[in-house]
Amino acid sequence: MLYEHRLNTSSTKTTAKKVNVAFGPGTSSDRTVHFWYKFLDEGDIMCEKQIRYGRPNTFDEDALHGELELHTDSNTRDLENALRQLRTTIDSHLNSMGYRKVIS
After folding, report:
1. Which of 9, 46, 60, 64 could form a disulfide with 4 if both were Cys (CB 3.0 to 4.6 A apart)?
2. How many CB atoms lie within 10 A of CB 16?
3. How many Å apart are CA 73 and CA 67, to the nearest integer?
């Protein structure tokens, strides 16, 4: 897409077809090319701007660390009540922090 953008190919459909020929059917659509052309038009050719989908993260990992230091024997249900967050959110943050499930 960067190559076609640099050549000033304005048709997103044409670019999408070329991408699909090169990388396989269904790889791209004209809507996807339009989305990326917008980034490239803004000069972000290195894609340094983070593409985010969904709601922004409001989870406070410092509060989780603090709660774990205060109550070392806490389980996810206790953390859920203390932090007022979903258990699945707490599980995913614990997992990313290196904690693993212990089945007793």
Report:
1. 9
2. 20
3. 10
Query: pLDDT tens-digit profile of 67-100?
Result: 999 998 888 899 999 998 989 999 999 998 888 8
Provide the greatest CA pair distance for the chain.
62
Q: Which domain range does residue 69 map to?
A: 61-97
Compute the distance between CA of residue 55 and CA of residue 50 in angstroms, rounded to an integer: 14
DSSP label of 54? S
Q: Is position 51 within any domain?
A: no
Give yes or no for a contact between 26 and 20, defined as CB atoms under 8 angstroms apart: yes
Give DSSP secondary structure letters for 61-77: HHHHHHHHHH-TT--HH
**Structural domain contains residue 34:** yes
Q: Residues 1-60: pLDDT tens digits?
A: 888 888 888 789 999 999 999 999 988 998 988 888 888 888 766 666 655 666 767 788
Same domain, 38 and 74: no
Tokens of 11: 């048709």
pLDDT of residue 21: 93
